[in-house]
Amino acid sequence: MKTPVRLTVVFVLTILSAVWGQGSTWALGPASPPIITFAAVWTQTSTTDHEPGAVNGVPQLLADLSTLIPGGFVPADVQSVTVLVPGEGSPGTLFKDADDLFADEEYFLNLTRAGVAGFPAGTYTFTVTDRLGGVSMTTDTLTAVSALPGATGVAISGATAVSADAFRAGFKLKSTPTISWTPAPGRSPRRCASGNSAVRPSLVTSLQTA
Predict the structure, then answer these.
(1) How far is Cα 134 from Cα 29, in angstroms, rounded to an integer?
(2) What is the pLDDT of residues 98-134, one digit of tens each?
(3) Does the global pTM surpass 0.85?
(4) Residue ranges per domain, the chain?
(5) Domain 35-142 adopts which CATH fold?
(6) Pick from 34, 146, 27: which is nearest to 82 by CA?
């Protein structure tokens, strides 16, 4: 007796859904814990008119981690990703970064916006736990830092604003938009020209890492 084609397809799709949707059932747990490929803490000051808000021009403390699950999937097989800040009693949770520019295995947390005061120097402990109890840990040390001030006076010439966060140069004019800004103290003045007809200015103008 032959199995109907439709029934066979449904059966296969059910298996694939179980594997991809719920994560794999092999190579997880304490015997094969997560692999941490990157973990870091740093301070950053950004000035932009692309995403105005409370953090614009204000120094921020950021944490980032990338992980792999042997024989499994990210994020389906990841239970939690956390970082313990020096002097804090409980760790903060890093969240899956949804930005298309970031890899699938990357987790991120703005510690300043999460409530961390200042830029605590010391050892930051990262922990990744998979859904079957496998645990991996790593650390990153932040030395004492002085946050850099942000740039001011961001301006765009040679383009026409078409929305609050995008600028477009006239196609017939064949113009080249130019982005300029007043640098942070101690930095050199810069100008950025774009040959693209659409410019989305997001300027990271001062960066400091441990």
Answers:
(1) 4
(2) 655 556 789 999 999 999 999 999 999 999 999 999 9
(3) no
(4) 35-142, 152-209
(5) Immunoglobulin-like (2.60.40)
(6) 34
